[in-house]
Amino acid sequence: MSERYDLCVIGSGPAGEKGAAQAAFYGKSVCVIERAPRPGGTAVNSGALPSKTLRETALLFHQLRQRGVTGVDWRVRPDSSIGDFMRRERAVIDAAWHAIDENLERHGVTRIRGTARFADPDTVEVTHPGQPPRRIAAEAFLIATGSQPYRPAEIPFDGRVVLDVEEILDLRMLPPRLIVIGGGAAGCEFASTFAALGAKVTLVTDRSRLLTQLDADISDAVRRELTRRLGVQSATDAAVTAVRVAGDIATVTLSDGRTLHAEAVLHCTAREGRTADLVLPAAGVTVTPQGFVRTDRTTFRTSNPRVFAAGDVCGLPALASLAMEQARVAVCHAFGLTFKTAVSAVVPTPIWTIPEVATVGLTEEGARLEGIRIERGIAHFRDNPRGQIVGELDGFVKLLFRTDDKRLVGASVMGEGAAELIHIPAAVIGLGGTLEYFIGAVFNYPAMADAYKYAAYDGLQRLARRVSAAMESRARATPPGTPTVPPPGTG
Ligand SMILES: Cc1cc2nc3c(=O)[nH]c(=O)nc-3n(C[C@H](O)[C@H](O)[C@H](O)COP(=O)(O)OP(=O)(O)OC[C@H]3O[C@@H](n4cnc5c(N)ncnc54)[C@H](O)[C@@H]3O)c2cc1C
Predict the structure, then answer these.
(1) CA of 135: how far to CAs of 11, 36, 115, 120, 127, in Å?
(2) H or E segment to which residue 113 belongs
(3) Which one of 236, 323, 398, 490 has the fewest CB atoms closer than 10 angstroms to its CB?
(4) Which residue's alpha carbon is at the smallest distance from atom 39 of ligand 1?
């Protein structure tokens, strides 16, 4: 005999929680199946919140040193454990658990503990040690099981010296040396955090630069700052050919013949969909070779029209913020609700390196690929009073706008508060605004956000220079005496 709900959600991470609450808000009967003892998924339990809590402490150390507070010894004790730096983690995670429990309870969502798998297209079976299996039937299903680190067979993960991103925060002691394999957001973030805590970090990527999702000037600036501020060494165009562990030391061999040694290696090159347990063929749901559920990316419907998927289980980008929105949209489509039928195309993306980076909208390369003629405007925090106060001298904001109507199409920020500051251009892009917004806006003084105004001025100047250069070159190409304006009656 099956229990029956309008919506059955599998997973209680950001996607599962918000999807469940959305459906319940509209009066649907909803259950959430979660195999872990506590809700919140990767975001709360092993990813975003724990890593950002550790980063915050590391950043504090770094800033105290950077801001030139003298007479105090800010060095980290060599016997410090990771736990020493994560005191606040417990409180942060407890608060998140409490908020999720309260949200699901308030919406009357039924919680079911166990591992879910599809028995057939209409039924999910839930198993949990010590309990009889339960069968759940539903009008619609939402798969929100997230993703997990990709662990290539040739990497000798041992949970002690060679680790993935969900294991590194369980390290007892701060490793004196750390090799990070992977130059994406997670790799650069952990490299920053551990270097700020005092580890000697080498970052290895087989790409030609770090953070390839960013404009080249931004990723170059991040690399420069990681080295200058934190001493992070990076090896680009360097494939890892072998990882060996002898005793407590790992040796990493690179394609250029170099060998690196460290007390810890963090492997974070990719993720894969957490779908192996779900027996998706039984539901007629198809996945990519990396285990990500295939959806139409608009309604988040899978190859089974009654099964939806949202969040990391659908593939990149892996962001908690996006996972929540995808789930809300999926649920609206599942029940024909008009409240929210599309995920915003404007997605601010943070990268929690030190310095922090955030982007929104198009990159320069993206604009070129779309055939959009753009200009940039840049302002540096060293020219901003608040930037001077906080010592954020190498950061900047960069605006990208269309040359024809000055409409903002993209923005990037590097420096303290980037993840917050990026919401201003995100709102301007979302509302179809132009550079004029920044020209006319009043910003706090002293405030980092004021840099946007100067980036807009810079953009206008670049545009004016471009127009006058074009006019000059046109004038040079025109033989003397040729009228530049067609005589009356000829046009
Ligand atoms: C180190 C790290 C740092 C990160 N930092 C950030 C950040 O700063 N900002 C940001 O936006 N994102 C960050 N992320 C990404 C963010 O954590 C994810 O995008 C987000 O958690 C995805 O949410 P989700 O609901 O799709 O999946 P998850 O959060 O992974 O939740 C999936 C849930 O499904 C459950 N589950 C899986 N299979 C089953 C099953 N068969 N039956 C029952 N339950 C099941 C799991 O136990 C889990 O609770 C980070 C990730 C990592 C790894």
Answers:
(1) 16, 19, 12, 11, 9
(2) strand 110-113
(3) 490
(4) 145
Tell me phi and psi for residue 316, to 5 degrees: -70, 160
How far apart, in whole angstroms, are the C-alpha atoms of residue 341 and residue 102?
26
User: How remote is the CA of residue 274 from the centroid of ligand 1, in Å?
Assistant: 10
Q: How far apart are the first and last CA of the chain?
A: 82
Give residue 318 CA to ligand 1 midpoint distance, Å. 8
CA of 491 to the centre of ligand 1 (A): 63
Cβ atoms 80, 88 nearer than 8 A:
no
Measured between alpha carbons, how far is 339 from 192 in angstroms, rounded to an integer?
40
Q: pLDDT at position 243, please?
A: 97
pLDDT digits 0-9 by tens, 147-188: 999 999 999 999 999 999 999 988 888 899 999 999 999 999
In a 3-state reduction of DSSP, which class is residue 438?
Answer: helix
Strand stretches in 14-89, DSSP E: 30-34
The tokens describing 25, both together, are: 């808000």
Distance CA 103, CA 97 (A): 10
This model's pTM is above 0.85: yes
- Inter-CA distances, 267 with 105, 182, 243, 365, 381, Å: 38, 7, 10, 28, 34
